[in-house]
Amino acid sequence: MIQWCLCLLMLLLANNIPHSEATSRSENKIKSAVFLSPKLTFGPGVVVNKLLYNVDFPKGHIAIKSFNGELVDEAGNSVPLHETYLHHWVLERYYQLKDSANSSNVTRIQVKNSGLCEGSFLRQYFGLGSETRKTETHIPDPYGIEAGNPAEIPYGYEEIWMLNVHGIDTRGVENTLGCTECWCDLYNVTENINGQPLSPNYKGGLLCCNDGKQCRLRKNYKGAIRNLYLRYTVKWVDWDSKNIIPLNIYIFDITDTERVNNTSGIISIQHNCQIEYDVQTCNATGVARKKRCIDAKTTSLTIPTGGYLIYGVGHQHAGGAGTTLYGKHGRVLCSSLPTYGKGKEAGNEAGYIVGMSTCYPKPGSVKIADGEKLVVESNYNSTQEHIGVMGLFYILVADRIA
Ligand SMILES: *[C@@H]1O[C@H](CO)[C@@H](O)[C@H](O)[C@H]1NC(C)=O
Ligand SMILES: *[C@@H]1O[C@H](CO)[C@@H](O)[C@H](O)[C@H]1NC(C)=O
Ligand SMILES: *[C@@H]1O[C@H](CO)[C@@H](O)[C@H](O)[C@H]1NC(C)=O
Ligand SMILES: *[C@@H]1O[C@H](CO)[C@@H](O)[C@H](O)[C@H]1NC(C)=O
Ligand SMILES: *[C@@H]1O[C@H](CO)[C@@H](O)[C@H](O)[C@H]1NC(C)=O
Ligand SMILES: *[C@@H]1O[C@H](CO)[C@@H](O)[C@H](O)[C@H]1NC(C)=O
Ligand SMILES: *[C@@H]1O[C@H](CO)[C@@H](O)[C@H](O)[C@H]1NC(C)=O
């Protein structure tokens, strides 16, 4: 379908990619392509949350070197967050029966990352939110995320990618922060998608801003319906087992808690990822309020298989004041701090997190042991209450270095 691929721009960027080290092993050229998602139709106050199966993606046995995206309009202009808030996009990998329709009810096997959450929670390969425009995702040589290995794809299946895009059009809304934090009262939502009443303690979060929901508008506000796209850029190299070191992806969730299940000697660790949490307003006044109102949350999680840390980044929502991943004895593995915008233009929207800082330790310098207990810390500014916020830590680890 034409609109799935309005612009496919193949650039051979052999020498344009900044290399962190002065090696030039680039016989294997970095390829880059820009794709557009299917059309996403927004009206003022409307939530769009789509699962887009089988989106355009590089084919073949490859190593992914970076992935990032942003919302654009039909003319290809970047859309600022104060018009359409990008709650998140995530990229998931699946094996799908060949020649099946791209609907959501087809038999698919999710190819999960190595992360800890139960079931299919947070099993994406890449994912970002409002910070998408100023967050680095590139993977230094000789590392990469392997995909499309024909030897791993079950017979009769093909590898496909699913993009979940969740955006909220906040043009003309009564309360922008409330709509972006998915406050249930603003969406007039009291039940979950199965029609069961939500707990009265549930003030907001993803359950209240499903696809198609409407956030309350200012009286008499009129705004046009418009079509947007997630424009995403993938960089990759052809697979080369001699020269590429594959990476494992872990995602840690601050709300996750671990419990050991010992059923007649069979030990397993159970997880309980809530994904979202609320930050209470701090109990302080005056100067103390300005200084001390930080909500610090921590959780302790065990990484089954460690490795050398190659990349790390956190994910937080507005109000976020940074997140840190610690190893044993409190050593800092990576700290990721938000950048807030200061203006109006896309990529610099005041009040929004427009970027998260990343870690690129010198490969070999940060090693995580198998079974090491890690601590995730997520800090929020609690001078005001925040609903449905997140604290994730995403890392890439290699089992050997070059
Ligand atoms: C599914 O999506 C792919 C990729 O966009 C497309 O080539 C294919 O025609 C679609 N299949 C159906 C049955 O719509
Ligand atoms: C799957 O969804 C398609 C449309 O999205 C529908 O036509 C088809 O009947 C569904 N199949 C099953 C088995 O539910
Ligand atoms: C909110 O939802 C209830 C029932 O679910 C409906 O009766 C009411 O009209 C809605 N209010 C608004 C402002 O949409
Ligand atoms: C503990 O693990 C066993 C399998 O080893 C499983 O059947 C059981 O449901 C688990 N217990 C809990 C409380 O989840
Ligand atoms: C698990 O339970 C068995 C008894 O069923 C006990 O002998 C063993 O020590 C327990 N292991 C741990 C790690 O708690
Ligand atoms: C704030 O803290 C003080 C002392 O710890 C307590 O007496 C007061 O009730 C608290 N106020 C609120 C609104 O929680
Ligand atoms: C928290 O946010 C308030 C209001 O946005 C601001 O005045 C304050 O300086 C912030 N506090 C910290 C510790 O960043």
TrEMBL record:
Keywords: Signal. Residues 1-22 form the signal peptide. Coiled coil: none annotated. InterPro entries: Stress_up-reg_Nod19. This is Stress up-regulated Nod 19. It comes from Tripterygium wilfordii (Thunder God vine).
